[in-house]
Amino acid sequence: MTEIRHQPIAPTRTRLLASRSAIDAHRHDDHQIVYAGRGVVAVTTDAGSWVAPATRALWVPAGTVHAHEAHGELELHLVGLPAGDNPLALDTPTVLAVSPLLRELIIAHTGTPDDGSPERARLRAVLLDQLRASPQQPLHLPAPSSPLLRGLCDLLLADPADGRTLAELGREVGASDRTLSRLFRRELGMTFPQWRTQARLHRALVLLAERTPVTTVAHRCGWSSASAFIDVFRRTFGHTPGTRPVGTFG
Questions:
Q1: pLDDT at residue 250 above 50?
Q2: Distance (Å, whole) CA 161 – CA 180
C-alpha cells in the first residue's frame, strides 16, 4: 500500500459514508479505534485486511498506513487516542469484540465535541476501561507476500465459491499442495482451510451489508447450504446473519 496522506492527530468524530466509498491510505501519529455503528467497515494495510460489523471494532496502532472502505450505508465512528494511551498494548491492527456498553460509549464519545470537561474525561476513562476488557477476535485476513501464494489467494478472493482443493488450485498456479500448505503456514500463520473460511466470511459480511439475501450470500461464498453458512457465521460472530445484534441501529 502506498502512503499518500499523513494526519498527525487521529480524529475523534462520526462520518457517514456511502456504500463502496473509501478513505484513501493514510496514517496517524495517534492510535485509532474504528467502529461501524451501521454497515460494515473494512480496513486494509500491507499486512492484510480486517472487516468489522457492528459487534466488532478495529484497533489501528499509531503509524499504521491504512485505508477504509464502506460496505452498506456506513456510520463510521473514529476515536483517536494519543500514542501514549495504548490500553491493550497492541502494536498491530486488531479486531475487538464490542459489548453493548462499549458501543454506546464509542457513539457518545464521537458524537460530542471535546470540550475538556470533567464529564468528557470520565467518559473517556470508562471507554478505555471497556477496551481493556474487550476480547480480541481472530478476524484478520492476512495478505501473502510470495507471488505464488498471492496468485492462489487472488483466485479465491475473486470467487470465494471456488471449491477446488489445494491440489487442484496448485495445478493452476504451478505448485504442489505440499508446497502451498507450507507457504500458508509460514507466510499467513494459518492453514489453507482456515484462510479460505476467513476469506469467505469477509466477503459474506460485505454482501450482507449490501442487503444481499442470506441464501444468496451462502452460495456466492461457497457454502453448500444456507444452514451451513448460518452455523459458521453464528459460531464466529455470536448471532445469525439474518439478525441485528441488540443495541445496534440503522
A1: no
A2: 20
Which segments of the chain does DSSP mark as H helices, in order?
100-110, 118-132, 147-158, 166-173, 177-183, 192-209, 214-220, 226-237
The C-alpha cell of 214 is what? 442470506
Alpha carbons 11 and 67: distance in angstroms, whole number: 15
The answer on pLDDT for 228 being more than 90 is: yes
d(C-alpha 43, C-alpha 197), whole Å:
18
The set of residues, in sequence order, having a beta carbon less than 8 Å from that of 198 and lying 6+ positions away, is 139, 140, 141, 190
Amino acid letter, 212: T
Q: Identify the helix (H) or strand (E) that includes residue 28.
A: strand 22-28
The CA distance from 151 to 71, in Å, is 25
**What's the angle, vertex CA 117, arms to CA 57 and CA 122, rounded to 5?**
50
Closest of 32, 26, 28, 23 to residue 4, by C-alpha: 26
pLDDT computed for residue 114 by the predictor = 86
Q: Three-state SS for 36?
A: strand
Question: Tens digit of pLDDT for each residue in 121-175?
Answer: 999 999 999 999 998 887 889 999 999 999 999 999 999 999 999 999 999 999 9
Q: Please, are residues 41 and 58 in contact by the beta-carbon 8 Å criterion?
A: yes
DSSP secondary-structure letter at 93? -
| pTM of the shown model | 0.85
